[in-house]
Each structure stands twice: as structure tokens, then as C-alpha cells.
Design goal:
- The chain has 17 helices and 13 strands.
- Strand 12 and strand 13 form a beta hairpin.
- Strands 5-6-9-8-7 form a five-stranded mixed beta sheet, with helices on both faces. It has a four-stranded mixed beta sheet with strand order 2-3-1-4, with helices on both faces. The chain has a two-stranded antiparallel ribbon with strand order 10-11.
- By secondary structure, it is α+β, with helices and mostly antiparallel strands.
- Helix 5 crosses helix 9, helix 8 crosses helix 9 and helix 9 packs across helix 10.
- The protein binds cytidine-5'-triphosphate and magnesium ion.
- The site of magnesium ion (MG) has 5 residues, from loops.
Length: 538
């Protein structure tokens, strides 16, 4: 679709509709570009932030009457969107059409009176409703993977576990609520989500990475006049930017710990390479990491988002590999010597660049296609790449997801990890600059290895699992070709075999599985995947 003139395409479509229709028709035309091309990440984020600013989060009794609840809230203005979800109780996210409705609602809320406890009188957009009831269903229908072709199995897995519209809105709302806390010190700040919450590869239950952005504060770029009077702020000076980041995070961390309702387990991890504050936000159920001054990570998020939007196979493959890795304990929610999801994603991108013809361009190619508005240098690192989708022409590659998944496992089963480094900037492996077991060059901070934490035994496990999974997929393929697959609805096959933990625990486990119904096994496996994701990070 991309590459064809959208206006010509639109006119052709209208002509066809008019020609075929015997009755009068109304044709609604969307402005060019709106339907055809994906939004840029910054447009998408601006829309989401706007929604979040107009939203409130309300804890509701378990059987609130939805109609009454909406009628009650509508007194403060029109409601754009609302939904309920469960996390330590039932919550409602309500987005008003106008910001002043939120102010009006907050004005009508009371500070609770309690007898034996004290309150920190911090007013936020997290409220509690009393005397109502509602029934909310968050049940998700588990896909019957067994009866599907591998390509469809991959699609079903992605559909089931990708972030929903609601979950995504909730992530922006939590950022917006946290902004209210940080705004006590920095009224013009913004809190932006990054990482898998917005890069298109997030799975339900993934952490919420947030970045306190102080670049939006006015005054950075004021140039004093060459002559005459001018004023500038007096500001405290410190000896390094890192020190500024640490002290800001330390203070915001204290506020979150002491004042922010619903927030528990605050840890300040200020001596890390990238200082952060980690905490659990109970009303949303999100494990949160707050960083500051982390603009390169924002750029890598944008790059991953761009790659994911270029071709639908990118997201599906990354998603499947992430699920596979989680099912086998290749990745973990606990920090350690495991391969991270970010590293895995870069490995998938590299593999897709190495296809013949390549499915996605190299980062150097994206850099060459960049326009002046894309120029970006952060702390001396060149972070420039084209963000205009219409400038990026893709080569025609018709590989199926089944082929790609099988070849991904084969590719990394054979990859010369001991000598070579993975490099998505060049789209070619490079000699390793240092002796880490797994070397994946950071796309923007090119002297860094994004998988520095990975030890030899974790890498060996990954390679062994790739070998096994490549073999299992070949078996499925051979069975299908011979037409001897038996009953697909009772025997795990294709992607389903790859996700079954029994394959790595050994024969004993496999025997046990034979006794259960296959669909039950898949169902429980999918549940396990979901639960694993929802475990809080320690
Ligand atoms: N990041 C980076 N360099 C690293 C690690 C992370 O630039 N060495 C950036 C990436 O943009 C990454 C984001 O920080 O997406 C968040 O890191 P992390 O939470 O570890 O990864 P996610 O992609 O969010 O995946 P997950 O779902 O596991 O949280
Ligand atoms: Mg993350």
C-alpha cells in the first residue's frame, strides 16, 4: 500500500464505489495520510498524553451500577471514554472531553475523615467512589491455537497478549498522575512513557518505564539580547549532570513514597549507570521505573516503534520470540544474567535485516534518509534517523512468519557468538570489540554492549533452545507436508510445541503432558505466560 499516491488511490476507490452502486451513496473522505500511514511516535504520544490529562482514575466498589456512575460523573461534563478493570479491586478510567471537567470533579471530592489514622493531604486524580456497584469483565478468550496454521498461531498469540487500547491509556494516565507529583517542584515537566509500553512490542503485564522530561521547561533556549537589560534565573549549580539527575530522582522518589496514594515498595537505585526510582503502583498494577535525563532511551524506543510499523511481520516475530523466551525462562522479570527483552528485540531486527531481500533497512540507511527535522545528537551520540514513513521504501520480501520463525531459530543456533557482535546500524555482524559472551552493539551509544549482563551459561541455554525449537518447527512442517499430522486439535504442533515447557524439562514432563487434553495444556500454558508477566519485579 505504501508508495502509491494516496489521493489517486482514494479517487480510484470512490470511482469504483460509484460505478458499482445502484443506489445513491455517501462517501466520507479522510484527509490524505490519516488512514494510510502510521502516526509518528511523537504524534501518537501527544494524543495519548492529551487523553491522560483529561482523565481520572476511580476505585469503585465491586458492583457499581455503570449507568448511575456515568450519570453522576457527567454532571461535571461530557465523557469521551470510560472503562473498568480489575487490580486490587475494581477501577474505572474516565476521560472527560474537557480538562475543566476534571477540575470540577476534583472540587466536588471530599477529603476522607478517619478516626484512627492520619492523612497526607495530597490531592491527586486517584479517587474512591462509595455507594455504587458495577460488573466488569476482563475475561479474555484464549485462542484455540491448536487448530490454526503457524502464521495464524503467531497472529493469535500477538492478539491475545499485546497491550490493549485500555491498558495503553492506563499507562499514559499513570504518567500523567505522576506528573502531578513532580509538578510540585517542576511545574512545566512532562513524564513520558518509553520502552515496551509504547514501542509496539509490549506484552500485558510488562513494566512501565517512565522518563521525567525537564527539557519541556521554558527558558532553555532564550537568547539574551546583545545589548540592554535582561534577566536570567539564579540556579543552584552542581558538578555533573549525573548529580543533578540523582538529586531530582531522589526528591521525587521521596514524594512518591510519602505522598502518592497507592504507591508501594519504592526503591531508589541512584548509583546505576542510568539512575532510577522503582516502585509498584497498586491501582494500575504496574511495576514502574522512573528515570530522568534518559533521552537516548527515548530515541531507541522511537526506532523500535518505527521498525515495528514498517512491516507487520516485525511486531509479530518480536512478539512471538518474546513469548517463547519468557516461556523458557530465557528472559526474566528479575534483573540478572538473563537476556533482556530489549536485547532479544535487537536480535530479531538484526535477523530481519539479514534476510534476502532484507525485510527492514539498516540504521545507517535510515540515517541517510533522514531530513533536517530528524537531526538529533544526544550527549555526543548521533541519534538521527528518518521518521517519515513515506521516505522509507521497503524491498519486496514474501517470507511467511512460519519461515521467519524457523529461520530465526536456525540463524541464532548457528551464529558465531564467540567472535562476532550483532550490529543493527550496519546490518552486518562485526568483530567483537570486547570479550563479553554476547555482544550486541547499542544502536546509539555505539561503544556500549546492550547485553553486557549476559553470562556464558545463559547464552548457551539460548543457543540450545534455538536448536531445539528450529528442530521442532521442522518436524511440524514435515508432518504437515506428509499430511500425517494426525489430529491437530489434540496434538501440540507448530508454535504450540515451542511454547510448551515440557520440551526443556525433559521426557518425564512430556509423558505427564500426554495424559491431559492438549487444549487444556495450551490454555494453562497461556495462563502461565500471563501470570509470569504479571509477577511484580523484585
Ligand atoms: N534501553 C536502552 N539500552 C539498554 C536497555 C534499555 O536503550 N541497554 C531502552 C530501550 O529503549 C528499552 C527501554 O530502555 O526499550 C526500556 O528498557 P527495558 O524495560 O529493559 O525493556 P523494554 O523494551 O521495556 O522491555 P520489557 O517489556 O522487558 O520491559
Ligand atoms: Mg520495560
Amino acid at each position: 500500500m505504501r508508495g502509491r499516491n494516496p489521493v489517486v488511490k482514494c479517487l480510484n476507490t470512490i470511482e469504483t464505489i460509484l460505478r458499482r452502486s445502484e443506489k445513491p451513496v455517501i462517501v466520507v473522505v479522510f484527509p490524505p495520510g490519516e488512514k494510510d500511514e502510521p502516526k509518528s511516535l511523537s504524534e501518537l504520544m501527544a494524543d495519548r498524553q492529551e487523553q491522560a490529562e483529561k482523565s481520572v482514575l476511580i476505585s469503585c466498589p465491586s458492583r457499581t451500577n455503570e449507568k448511575k456512575f456515568l450519570k453522576f460523573l457527567s454532571k461535571h461534563g461530557d465523557i469521551n471514554k470510560h472503562f473498568f478493570y480489575e487490580s486490587y479491586g475494581v477501577y474505572a478510567v474516565v476521560e472527560f472531553a474537557r480538562r475543566d471537567s476534571v477540575a470540577s470533579l476534583l472540587e466536588s471530592a471530599a477529603i476522607p475523615s478517619v478516626n484512627h489514622e492520619c492523612m497526607v493531604p495530597f490531592k491527586s486524580r486517584l479517587l474512591s467512589l462509595s455507594n455504587q456497584s458495577l460488573a466488569a469483565s476482563t475475561d479474555r478468550i484464549l485462542p484455540a491455537l491448536m487448530s490454526l496454521q503457524v502464521d495464524d498461531q503467531i497472529g493469535a498469540l500477538t492478539e491475545t497478549y499485546q497491550l490493549t487500547e485500555e491498558n495503553s491509556r492506563l499507562r499514559f494516565l499513570v504518567c500523567s498522575l505522576l506528573k502531578d507529583v513532580a509538578a510540585a517542584y517542576f511545574p512545566e515537566c512532562t513524564i513520558r512513557p518509553f520502552g515496551s509500553s509504547v514501542n509496539g512490542f509490549g506484552k500485558l503485564g510488562c513494566d512501565l518505564d517512565m522518563f521525567l522530561d525537564l527539557d519541556s521547561i521554558s527558558g532553555w533556549n532564550f537568547k539574551p539580547p546583545k545589548s540592554g537589560l535582561s534577566l536570567e534565573y539564579q540556579m543552584k549549580r552542581t558538578n555533573s549532570e549525573r548529580h543533578v539527575t540523582q538529586s531530582i530522582l531522589s526528591v521525587i522518589g521521596e514524594c512518591v513514597d510519602h505522598f502518592w496514594p497507592g504507591c508501594v515498595g519504592v526503591q531508589k537505585i541512584l548509583n546505576a549507570r542510568c539512575p532510577l526510582v522503582r516502585f509498584a503502583h497498586q491501582p494500575s498494577g504496574f511495576q514502574c521505573d522512573l528515570t530522568a535525563n534518559n533521552r537516548v532511551a527515548m530515541k531507541s524506543t522511537e526506532l523500535l516503534y518505527l521498525y515495528g510499523e514498517l512491516d507487520p511481520r516485525v511486531r509479530s516475530l518480536v512478539f512471538t520470540v518474546r513469548c517463547w523466551a519468557r516461556a523458557h525462562g530465557v528472559t526474566s522479570s528479575i534483573p540478572g544474567a538473563w537476556i533482556t527483552n530489549f536485547s532479544l528485540t535487537v536480535m530479531v531486527l538484526f535477523f530481519l535485516q539479514k534476510r534476502s531481500p532484507p525485510i527492514i533497512p539498516t540504521l545507517d540507511r535510515l540515517r541517510d534518509l533522514a531530513g533536517p527535522a530528524d537531526e538529533s545528537v544526544i550527549e555526543g551520540n548521533d541519534c538521527t534517523f528518518a521518521t517519515d514513513f513515506s521516505k522509507i521504501q521497503l524491498q519486496s520480501n514474501t517470507d511467511t512468519l512460519e519461515q521467519l520463525l524457523g529461520d530465526f531459530f536456525e540463524f541464532y543456533a548457528m551464529f558465531p557468538f564467540s567472535r562476532m557482535s550483532i550490529n543493527i546500524r550496519k546490518g552486518r555482524e562485526q568483530n567483537k570489540p570486547e570479550m563479553a559472551p554476547l555482544h550486541i552493539q547499542n544502536p546509539f551509544e555505539t561503544s556500549l554492549n546492550v547485553s553486557k549482563n549476559v553470562n556464558t551459561s545463559q547464552l548457551d541455554r539460548f543457543v540450545a533452545l534455538c536448536q531445539e525449537s528450529a528442530w521442532l518447527l521442522q518436524q511440524s512442517e514435515t508432518r504437515t507436508q506428509r499430511g500425517s499430522s494426525g489430529n491437530r486439535t489434540t496434538t501440540p504442533w507448530g508454535l504450540a510445541t515451542l511454547l510448551l515447557p515440557s520440551k526443556v524439562v525433559g521426557i518425564k514432563g512430556r509423558k505427564k503432558y500426554k495424559k491431559e487434553g492438549a487444549s487444556e495444556r495450551i490454555k494453562s500454558l497461556l495462563e502461565t505466560l500471563k501470570n509470569k508477566n504479571e509477577e511484580p519485579k523484585s
